[in-house]
Write a structure and sequence with these properties.
The complex is a heterodimer of chains A (725) and B (588). Chain A is an alpha/beta fold. In chain A, 41% of the residues lie in helices and 15% in strands. In chain A, the strands form six sheets. Chain A has a five-stranded mixed beta sheet. Chain A has a four-stranded mixed beta sheet with strand order 2-1-3-4, with helices on one face. In chain A, helix 3 (44-58) crosses helix 4 (97-110), helix 22 (587-604) runs antiparallel to helix 23 (610-626) and helix 23 runs antiparallel to helix 25. Chain B has 588 residues and is an alpha/beta fold. The mean pLDDT of chain B is 93. The radius of gyration of chain B is 25 Å and the shape is globular. In chain B, helix 2 (81-96) packs antiparallel against helix 3 (112-120) and helix 9 (273-292) crosses helix 11 (329-345). A five-stranded mixed beta sheet of chain B has the order 2-1-5-3-4, sandwiched between helices. Chain B contains 19 helices and 17 strands. The chains are: A alpha/beta (725), B alpha/beta (588).
Chain lengths: 725, 588
């Protein structure tokens, strides 16, 4: 059997490589355009259209367009990469039609890249060669060696623009063997990956490679690291260098609709290994060793879950991929489904083999049409290639997958509600136990994992469970993708090893708080998460510490809050979401969230008394302790954690009737400073309720009785005469 | 055996229970009643209300006692201050979204929510705020839905689905706006509802109630006697249950007191639905014997239960040809009252006002069916009171029911056999029919009286009875999920059944949708309840001289004087009905 599977995989790989080689694209100029819902929304389709027109008009046949998914660099989309063979790809940010014209005429036609439009200023400091050092946790010598190399470079007096150095968070190339002994270096654009240990290695690298452009063969690392492909393209972008891309290693480099490309990037090798070994317990054991925790938020050990499903006496078993990403501001699942769908499919097939499932379901929310389309295409392609359906990879094992659409209820992300939704019932949670692994879909053992969980599986199989475990903490292995947003300079999807301090994510990747304001708190885990005060920002991000701090990992929302944010208002915002999305089944969540929201509304409108705070906390605890499902139990987290860290703000709202952040409309007032006002009448003309009076060239006055506090006057005043107090 | 036993500690007391026992049941073994609202032992687990939470050592959050099975060494606290506060707060949250009109509510004093609020000590309101608003749905002839009183325990949904197989109710909307109702939140009269009223029985509050007919009865009773002659007929099950409403033990037969109470209320004539039941047996037995002789399809399905008839018309219209065309006992008696009785009394039919006391809310629907009306459209039955409604009227009037002297039914429509009394129990119609059929088939007037095989509250009973050398395959079902099973068996054609009795309500009419709410220490669907009530009926039957319907002299006289032959032309015109498929709007 092992041979049959291996033969199948070799044939598959050969076919894929041949198909890609036949296209002859390797020698052409490649225009890489991000294609995902977010990229489309930012205008990547227009850029695509414009490039196509330009290529046609130029009559050149040595230019190809390569559509990839999304890297997660949200605030800079659409992103376009131009790769001239033999050169480092140049990435451009915020590409619109006009910029397409400039890129085409200058960079493509004349060979002159446009540094001012390069992504994150990546062309500000270019060199012919870039040496990227690994600063991973296990490459402990990385920093020292890089500094030594920098010193040597200075002494070597190489011509200006010949070499530059940088570092990444981790290439993921380490093993027990290398730990503490050496570090890894990627040389772009030569795509050479070194393992170096000592001064001699540095000297050789400098003299042979940096000076003469010769590869030091003896230093080549024995294996290609998982992230090499990604950093060959994006190694010069600061935003990505502080990340560690495992689940998202292919996002933004692979064509999500091409099985061949996925195979070129190592796809389905893991499935081949698994089916070749034909030992579900071996798979489960690797996943156990990996300490992979469910990325949907609960953090249950995936291997354990699989083991439980595998041990059920009932043989009809189901596998479900939970793609019902409902947190506001969370889009990592969508990102992965759209950008690297085959990876998720492969992860699912492996999981199905491990637990002995015959049938699997993708539960994806209907609001993700592109993800649905791409997963469907991936399933069709896999079925056609013999990777899904009957006799997968000639192993004699059958498994198939189908898509079920979620209608948009937040609660359907909860596993028992999701199961009921697939069964065609009202999507409401059920009491557990029995857990789905015992009695799930249609009463059969069912294993439900999140998209991101499946995205990690092929990496675990290919690189080993121990390797994966080493990427994270002693509690949880691997990385976690976060959706970084809020008052932070750079937003987007970031993947960092578990155990990374929150502050590093905010400051190193996110570039710090917007407008350089003070960091107030970091909110994690979506609407059911909590606030981590700035004083605890050095906390290592992991399931345990977050829970201890009163928050949750959740699906991975990370929202940065500055002094401009009002904690009461934010608590109200999150609670209004959970209140709105409460399924209505259990009393504490259905009624409790409504009452808590009422109290918060009282507080933000200045009608509350101090006794209301106790009631709020009492209800929050009740909901936390007695609600039926995980969502209900987590619903009061925003309140409890803000009461814990920011009680002063609540008191201020109640006693002083003041909102320092000026977010709670009822507690603020607009007034015009008669000294500053020049009587230009702009405010009066813009006031929608006409409550501003005053003669031309005399100070104006706001009638507080009629003012609706819309803030128009504040916005339009050019002399800062309107004050918000 | 011992390895299947689990030892755990509840409130510092050790208890041993079989593996798989829930905390709630284990606590009951120690005599600790953990409060509950959504939980019902005969329905699937909901886990929605959360008031049964307990503290378990090692868990930071509370666990629901209804859903968690015990484990070895488990240490449970059922009444810690934290638990007491949590339960209190949960019940307050329910009250906060409730109309709080207890004093004017039909279930004041017999409401589970009210009871829990009192028991758990909700003495002040901490969290009061807005409240959900939904219109009352009183479009149905039988069931009134008041969603504002609903606490979303889901018992009605489950009883409708799991016990009755009707699946009419479900939750709509979500969160605070969640509401229980029929498909697309349509009206109950335009839904799949079969009016059985089991939702009323299981409802802990007054979110489901029967359509009130007391007011029209009070008004009729106040009319001058030359305008209306008010006639009343109580169904067999009333006499076995109404005593409960006046503090008497479950299963106390109170026929005599009931009659006196009705007279005190001002009814001019007190007849007995039993007379209709005897008549039904004559007609149905003849119909059965005719079909047995090859003239018509078998099995014959009984048609006394209007909830079942509604179910037939909505879910199994293809089985209509099998169903007996006999009107129900109530309808037969009403018909006779407005025809034969009126004639003899020298009254116009419209001068007679017929009030039926039924254990059933579907009877309200049956009474309003055009098939059960006179040619001019006036119904034969003018008002149908449930047992609960009548009990309230008696209380409202100030009648000391417990100490009433026994009265007797008026003649001739008050004379009945014991066979009619047992109509109220599941299997009773079958037994009554078999008593008469056996005599008719064998010609032996001393045929069998007791058919043990069809007694008992089991949901589905089957037996083969040998009568005069003929093997008669019979089946008796109660609870419509069981009816489905037997109907599917009939449709699949595996076994030839001859006679099938179907009653809509689980346990038969004695546990009908209009019967008294059980005491708080008993659950609505507890089989003990119909068992005890049925026992009273079997006792009444046992104590009677007349045990077979055809032995009822008044019946024989009626045929001779008025109806002619059983199943004859006149009998057919007056005592038989017809059915037609009824689909909720939008379903063809």
């Amino acid at each position: 059997m092992a041979n049959q599977v291996a033969d199948f995989f070799e044939r598959l790989k050969a076919r894929a490589h041949a198909a890609l080689a036949d296209s002859g694209d390797a020698n052409r100029i490649k225009i890489q355009i991000g294609s995902a819902t977010c990229e489309h929304a930012a205008g990547s389709l227009e850029a695509l259209d414009e490039f196509q027109k330009h290529i046609q008009a130029s009559g050149r046949d040595d230019i190809i367009i390569h559509q990839t998914g999304c890297t997660g660099r949200c605030s800079k989309e659409p992103i376009v990469g131009i790769t001239v063979p033999g050169k480092m790809p140049v990435k451009y940010e915020r590409v619109d039609r006009a910029l397409v014209h400039k890129i085409f005429s200058s960079h493509i036609q004349k060979g002159q890249p446009l540094a001012e439009h390069a992504l994150d200023g990546s062309l500000d400091d270019v060199a012919e060669l870039e040496f990227i050092f690994c600063y991973g946790r296990r490459c402990t010598t990385g920093q020292t060696l890089k500094h030594a190399f920098d010193r040597k470079l200075k002494e070597a007096n190489l011509p200006a623009g010949r070499v530059k150095t940088s570092h990444v968070r981790c290439f993921g190339a380490c093993s027990d063997e290398t730990e503490g002994k050496c570090t890894h270096v990627l040389v772009n654009p030569h795509q050479v990956f070194y393992r170096i240990a000592c001064e001699q290695d540095l000297d050789d690298m400098l003299e042979m490679h940096a000076r003469n452009g010769e590869v030091v063969e003896r230093l080549r690392a024995p294996e290609k690291p998982i992230t090499q492909d990604f950093y060959q393209t994006y190694g010069d972008i600061h935003f990505f260098n502080h990340q560690n891309r495992i689940a998202m290693r292919n996002s933004g480099i692979v064509d999500p609709e091409s099985l061949e490309e996925y195979i070129r990037f190592g796809g389905f090798q893991a499935l081949g290994t698994v089916l070749g070994k034909n030992d579900p317990e071996w798979v489960i054991n690797e996943v156990l060793k990996a300490r992979l925790r469910g990325r949907g938020g609960g953090g249950f050990l995936t291997g354990k879950k699989w083991q439980m499903a595998h041990q059920q006496p009932e043989k009809t078993r189901y596998l479900i991929c939970n793609g019902d990403e409902g947190d506001p501001g969370a889009f990592m699942d969508r990102g992965m489904l759209e950008s690297d769908p085959f990876n998720i499919v492969e992860g699912m097939i492996i999981a199905a083999f491990a637990i002995g499932a015959q049938h699997g379901f993708y539960y994806i929310r209907a609001e993700y049409p592109l993800a649905i389309k791409r997963i469907q295409k991936a399933l069709d392609a896999c079925r056609a290639a013999g990777l899904l359906g009957k006799n997968i990879m000639d192993s004699g094992w059958d498994f198939d997958l189908e898509i079920r659409l979620g209608a948009g209820a937040f609660v359907c992300g909860e596993e028992t509600a999701l199961i009921r939704s697939i069964e065609g019932k009202r999507g409401q949670p059920k009491v557990r136990p029995p857990y789905p692994v015992v009695r799930g879909l249609w009463g059969k053992p069912t294993c439900i994992n999140n998209v991101e969980t499946f995205a990690n599986i092929s990496a675990i199989i290919n690189y080993g469970g121990e390797w994966f475990a080493n990427q994270g903490t002693s509690e949880s292995g691997g990385t976690k993708v976060f959706a970084l947003a809020g008052n932070v300079k750079e937003t987007g999807l970031v993947e960092v090893p578990l155990g990374t301090p929150l502050s590093k994510v905010v400051f190193n990747i996110g570039g710090g708080v917007k407008d350089d304001k003070a960091l107030k708190a970091i909110q994690t885990g979506g609407p059911a998460g909590g606030f981590i005060p700035a004083s605890q920002a050095d906390m290592e991000v992991d399931f345990g510490p977050l829970a201890k701090a009163g928050s949750i990992m959740g699906s991975g929302g990370m929202i940065v809050l500055s002094e401009d944010d009002c904690m009461v208002d934010l608590s109200k915002f999150y609670l209004s979401f959970t209140q709105e999305e409460s399924c209505g089944k259990c009393t504490p969540c259905r009624e409790g969230t409504t009452r808590m929201l009422e109290i918060l509304e009282k507080i933000t409108s200045g009608r509350a008394e101090m006794g209301d705070l106790d009631k709020l906390e009492r209800l929050a605890r009740l909901c936390q302790q007695t609600a039926l499902c995980g969502l209900g139990r987590a619903a009061p987290n925003p309140i409890l954690s803000s009461l814990k860290g920011f009680k002063d703000e609540f008191v201020e709202h109640i006693v002083d009737k003041k909102c320092k952040a000026k977010k709670c409309v009822a507690l603020i007032r607009y007034q015009i400073d008669p000294e500053t006002c020049i009587g230009c009448t702009v405010c009066a003309r813009n006031c929608p309720v006409e409550c501003i009076s005053g003669q031309r060239k005399t100070a104006h006055v706001i009638d507080q009785e009629r003012c609706v506090k819309c803030g128009q006057c504040f916005e339009v005043c050019r002399f800062d005469a309107v004050e918000r107090v | 055996m011992t390895e299947n036993m689990i030892t755990l500690t509840i409130d510092s007391e050790t208890v041993q229970v079989p593996k798989g026992t829930t905390v709630l049941k284990a606590a009951e073994k120690l005599g600790i009643h953990i409060p509950r609202l959504c939980y019902h032992p005969k329905l699937s687990l909901e886990g929605a209300c959360r008031i049964c939470v307990v503290q378990v050592e090692g868990f930071s959050s509370f666990l629901t006692a209804c859903s968690h099975e015990v484990w070895e060494g488990m240490n449970v606290q059922t009444n810690s201050p934290e638990i007491r506060q949590a339960r209190r707060d949960i019940v307050e949250l329910l009250l906060d979204n409730h109309p709080m009109d207890c004093q004017t509510c039909d279930r004041d004093g017999i409401c589970e929510l009210q009871k829990q609020a009192y028991r758990l000590g909700v003495r002040e309101r901490l969290f009061e705020g807005k409240r959900k608003r939904f219109p009352i749905d009183d479009a149905s002839e039988s069931v009134v839905r008041t969603p504002e009183k609903c606490i979303l325990c889901g018992r009605c949904i489950r009883v409708c689905k799991e016990v009755q197989g009707v699946h009419n109710l479900s939750q709509h909307g979500r969160g605070f706006e969640t509401v229980v109702g029929p498909a697309n939140l349509g009206k109950m009269d335009d839904s799949a509802c079969i009016q059985c009223g089991q939702c009323i029985n299981v409802c802990p509050t007054a979110a489901f109630l029967e359509k009130d007919h007391t007011e029209r009865v009070w008004q009729a009773l106040a009319l001058p006697r030359d305008v209306k002659h008010i006639v009343v007929q109580p169904a067999p099950s009333i006499r076995a249950a109404i005593g409960e409403c006046f503090g008497m033990p479950i299963g106390t037969p109170v026929t005599g007191k009931l009659i006196t109470a009705l007279r005190r209320l001002g009814f001019d004539a007190v007849f007995d639905t039993n007379f209709g039941a005897d008549l039904t047996i004559i007609e149905e037995a003849n119909e059965f014997l005719r079909r047995m002789s090859g003239d018509g399809p078998l099995p014959l399905l009984t048609s006394c239960s209007p909830g079942w008839v509604s179910f037939l018309e909505k879910f199994y219209p293809e089985m209509i040809p099998f169903t007996s065309t006999c009107k129900s006992p109530m309808s037969m008696l009403s018909t006779l009252s407005k025809t034969h009785y009126a004639e003899k009394k020298g009254l116009r039919p419209d001068q007679v006002y017929m009030v039926a006391i039924m254990p059933c809310v579907a009877k309200k629907f049956e009474a309003a069916r055009p098939e059960h009306a006179m040619e001019d459209g006036t119904p034969y039955t003018d008002a149908v009171l449930t047992t609960r409604e009548l009990a309230w009227m008696i209380k409202s009037y100030g009648i000391d029911f417990q100490n009433l002297p026994d009265g007797e039914f008026d003649r001739p429509l008050g004379i009945s056999s014991g066979a009619a009394d047992i109509f109220g129990a599941t299997g009773g119609v079958m037994e009554a029919a078999l008593r008469t059929a056996a005599v008719k088939l064998t010609g032996d007037e001393l045929g069998p009286l007791v058919f043990e095989d069809v007694r008992g509250v089991t949901g589905l009973k089957e037996a083969t009875v040998n009568v005069a050398g003929k093997e008669i395959n019979i089946a008796v079902s109660n609870g419509l999920t069981n009816a489905k099973t037997i109907l599917e068996a009939v449709k699949s054609g595996g076994k030839q059944y001859h006679l099938i009795e179907i009653m809509a309500c689980p346990g038969g009419c004695v546990a009908g949708g209009g019967q008294p709410y059980p005491p708080f220490d008993m659950d609505v669907l507890d089989p003990q309840l119909p068992k005890l009530r049925a026992k009273a009926l079997y006792q009444i039957d046992h104590d009677k001289q007349l045990r077979r319907s055809h032995e009822n002299p008044a019946i024989a006289h009626l045929y001779a004087e008025f109806l002619g032959e059983p199943n004859g032309e006149k009998a057919h015109a007056l005592l038989h009905t017809h059915y037609h498929a009824r689909m909720p709007r939008g379903i063809k």
